[in-house]
Amino acid sequence: MDPFRFVAAADEHAARAAASAGARYLAGGTTLVDLMKLHVERPRTVVDINALPLTEIAETPGGGVRVGALVRNSDMAHHPLIRARFPLLSQALLAGASPQIRNMATTGGNLLQRTRCYYFRDTSAACNKREPGSGCSALDGCNRIHAVLGTSDHCIATHPSDMCVALAALDAFVLLSGPRGSRVVPLVEFHLMPGDHPERETAIEPGELITAVDVPPLGFATRSAYVKVRDRASYAFALASAAVALDLRGGEIRDARIALGGVATKPWRAREAERTLVGRPPDAASFRAAADAALAGARPRAHNGFKIELAKRTIVRALTRAGAMA
Amino acid sequence: MTAPRDFKYVGTRPIRHDGVDKVTGRASYGADAAWPGMLHGFVLRSPHAHARIVSIDTGAAEAVPGVHAVITGKDLPETTATIALGEAAIDLRDIGDNVLAKTKTLYHGHAVAAVAATTIDIAREAAAAIEVVYDVLEPVTGIDRALGAGAPILHPALVTKGAAGPDAGGPTNIASRMELKRGDVDAGFAEADLVVEREFRTPMVHQGYIEPHACIARCGEDGRAVVWCTTQGPFVVRDACAAIVGLDPANVKVVPSEIGGGFGGKIVVYLEPLALALARKARRPVKIVMGRDDVFRATGPTSGSKVRVKLGAKRDGTIVAASASLWYEAGAYAGSPVGAGAMCMLAAYKVPNFFIEAYDVVVNKPKVAAYRAPGSPIAAFAVESVVDEIARELKIDPIELRLMNANAEGDRAPYGPKYGPIGLAQILEAARAHPHWRAPLGANQGRGFAVGFWFNAGMNSSATVTLNSDGSAAVVTGNPDIGGTRAAQAMMAAEELGIPVERVRSNVGDTDGSGFTDVTGGSRVCYATGMAVIRAAEDAREQLRARAATIWNVSKDAVGWENGRAIPPAGTEKASPMTVAELTAKMTQTGGPIVGRASLYAPMAGPAFGAHICDLEVDPETGRSRIVRYTAFQDVGKAVHPSYVEGQMQGGVAQGIGWALNEEYIYSADGVMENAGFLDYRMPVASDLPMIETVIVEVANPLHPYGVRGVGEVPIVPPLAAVANAMRDATGIRFTELPLSPPRVLEAIEAAAAVPVEA
Questions:
Q1: For the domain with range B458-602, which CATH number is right: 3.30.530.20, 3.30.365.10, 3.40.50.2000, 3.40.50.720?
Q2: How far is B596 from chain A (nearest CA, A)?
Q3: Contact B687/A234, CB-based, under 8 Å?
């Protein structure tokens, strides 16, 4: 770890004031501290925001839920409102990391999780995300864990979050507070595709602080599932994951939500796949058609081609599980 | 001791002696020491897997404020000594070159320089200022490349040792070749009704001990040095450091810290000579702690391998012939455990005709170190998979087939000596009788069976048992305690002295405070050092009898000993039995302190077998598998502390399952390890494993007074094959390459499903 200045901020104003260029906010620290140890993150200042009053989970009008940025992953996962209304979100959170990490990791931090690409984490390797313009070692390297959707010629790193996949399916919003006031960004627009600038990962502006996440009401989210496929039972990132919800009425799908993790450069909303389901019966053929649509634009590299079929099966399994719910 | 003995403490489960310190965080591990005036060391490592060092300029680094010393290979003398070490001799020239490259870097992560500075950040910054000019060479990334035409050569002077190979003579990457043979192998195969031949591959895997390597060293103006470090062998560290750094071993004291796992990987030195050389140059203590990435990249994993096995059997299941070729990666320097693999692979079976050839192959990867039964799991994976195929082909129950061919007492082991009493048939019968063997299987589930063997080691051990005036005792040996040996040693001393086990404190001495003792390895500590403790306690007990004789004014021979009490001869006036505490209370008046001591060399140990049943369920859509039930049977001779014995069995199984299912070193074409962390180097976590059931079988080892056999290594031998055989049962597919990770399994399932039907 490189030396840094440590500031414990008492309130939001103090936090933003301390957050000059080269500073990082510290919440749970499960990503930041890890990357600091690897010298990937080398902040000059670390601003501890854990004293900020952003730890509430509250109901919003119409049946939505607002989750404070400092709510721990484990607290959100086990909260009665989340479990009752958005089971896929609770399942996604519990599929991530390990109990110890979930007890520390926060909602805001999870939104800003950095990729687990080997080359991003190895400072001796070329990585456009870590060092813009240095090249991408993953393109022709060990890219078994890399993305097949949303990639560019400069980066194929996956977004690692489970929580964000469920939030993408739920059309959640990110609440930001900054020097020019507050603003709201839809989660699906919060994370950026790598394009020519993989170092730019989110829509967050300098000096802005995530204060909360709004999950809007979605009645049929009670019929939902998160399925994560990984190399071992826990403490492993997704090779493929799917967050789905189904609006089933009269033996027909009226509406659907599908988002993917582990296969894309950002939490991946599969709208085309959702559209193919509308008006169809909840059967294997419908689910398979949706899965094919979701991966239609996939572009494999040398070692990650297996993810395309794996992701399709993951979608089918998640939809089957949601469809079978009482 | 032939009659079964009635034990008071041996076989019970007292609270572990190391428990409270560990769960309260008081135990001091390698990185926990801090000495006055201490500097921090940082090691600069090669970014290239294979390169010639053209020049190293340390000028800029030395000029960084706060830097006290910088060393390169030039600061260490050339050495040619070796240290004998039961399982493998240590060539100190290679080790010296491995800890700090002299002329070539031979793997990604090979140390090329080290810096000591007032803070770790300054040391790191200074290391970055060291200018190393490399002439980058093509790396040898695996066995096939190492043996292929026009392969780059790691060591131009390397000559193949042992029986001459086909390409002996010219430059080679084959460090040695050995043969084992018996009978007429061609005639044997001619006699066979069924011949099965397969080729197997396994990747390099790491022991994965939780505690990284760490040490602190100081060296005075008088040449006297002290090293505190996490190690399995303080005496090895002493001798290796002295030779590599150029000090008199008599001047080097090594103090072993508490150890957070080793599994063989903490026998050789990595950081200790560097800390010592820096400390000598800086005249200040120097501490170095390895990061996890360096543990993976630059310490010793076990070999990647290629093994070809051919077995011939009669229709009734009798195995009549075997041939095998083994190629193990040694890493950058000679010394893979391929010889042990060759010697273990047929240990379970009566095979009248066999021919085995074994090659030690150098490649541009880290120099391998011992890993729990070094060499045997890889060989067992191959042989036990083929035995499983034979059982299937001949439609014979796999346990039945093994019982039919099992070696027994008096049979000659494939590696030479005749077996004494061994428990192979007993564990096979225990497995056959166990409910697990007949339990029904669910959908997509399969059951696998495999056996495994390890020699176990004896070697040198010393112990003292010091009696305190209150009748308590302190045991000191020279073996760092990895597997609960302090508890077992306390129990043995308590057993001999007849005092409560809680009254015995068990300690690990340093190299000046304990008699010479070989490494904690080879499953030897409870056996050989335990035997030294028993003898030392007997020595103390004999001294107690002599003191009682003095008090009673009778001859020592007339004093009896029962249940921890000296018994006066019948008719002695006013004398009644005296306890240990009553006798030690009078030590000063009867001749002074009592210290029992013993040292011994055990040339042999009791070899041991394990048999494992594994149930596995595979998800045919994702290729991911889950171990749903696992039972391990093992002949342990005599379980001193059964909880530790079960823990060893479960630990070996857990590591073996990781090796079978998920663990592997992933290298780029340039020889760079890509998964140097616990997230991407996937060891099993608790949620990956079922409760591992254990069945202890006790066939007494006549070489030990209690019948103890080594326990720790055998249980990692069968799992690779047991898991692969379960996978074969579940999927119908014989996997010959590890790990059985989800993508590999899925690909094989899909390929099997896609086989076109002939028109």
A1: 3.30.365.10
A2: 48
A3: yes
